[in-house]
Amino acid sequence: MENGTLIGTGAGIHFTAGSRYVHGVDGKQIPIANWASGSVCEVQGMVQLSPDGIGQSFSRFIWNCTGQVQPFLVNNPAFTLIDTLILSSTGTTSFIFAGAATQDYFYEISNIQIRQGRLQLSHRTTANDGKVTLSVAGSINIANDVNARFVFADGTASPDAFSYVADVLLAGNLMVEGSAASFHSASSLSLAQGRVVFKGSQQQLHIVGGGNITRGKVDFLIEANTTV
Fold first, then answer.
1. Collapsing DSSP states into helix, strand and coil, what is residue 195?
2. Which of 48, 49, 97, 99 is least buried, going by the fewest C-beta atoms within 10 A?
3. Rounded-to-integer distance, Cα 133 and Cα 170, Å
C-alpha cells in the first residue's frame, strides 16, 4: 500500500478471523483478498469517490462514511457476505445496490443491520431498467433512529401489476425496531415497487415498532410451509 494505492493485484492477501481492514481514503481500491469468517472490512473514507474492489466475498462488511456526499452504487453481484452488512453512516446520501441499468442484479447476504444510514435496493428510472433481488439468509434489523432507513426504490418508473422493482427473499426475521426507523419505498407511485418474501424453514418474526412503512407500497408474501 502506497499513499492509499494498492500496489499489485492483491493476490495472496488473507484476512484471518479477528482481523480488521479499515479503508479510510476517498476512492482507491479495497484489497482483493481472502476474507475468512470473522474478519472485518470497514469503509470509512468515502466522500465523493467510490472505492474499487467491491466485487468479492467478504465476511463482515461495515459502511461508516460520515462525510459521504455522493451515493455509493454497488452494481456488482459478486459482492456477497457470509456474515453481516452493517450500515453505520452514509453521510447525506445512500448505499445503493443497483442504479439505472437494464440488467437484473441478484445479491446474497447473510444478515443486514442498519444502525444509521440509508440502504437502497434500486434506483430505477425507466421501465427498461432491471430488477434487484436481495436474498438474505438471516435477518434484517433496522435501529430506532431517524437516520436508519431501508428503501426499496426511489425511481420514477412504474412497475407493471405483475412485477416489482426490488424483491427481498428473507429466511430470517424482519425487525424495524421503533417509530423513528423507516422501511419503505420512497416512491409515491400507486403500484408496489418492493416486495418481501418470507421463506424461512423455521418460524420468522416480523416486528415493526411503529416505523415508517407507509410511504410508497411494499407487498408481503408468505411462502407455503412458512410461518410468520
1. strand
2. 48
3. 11
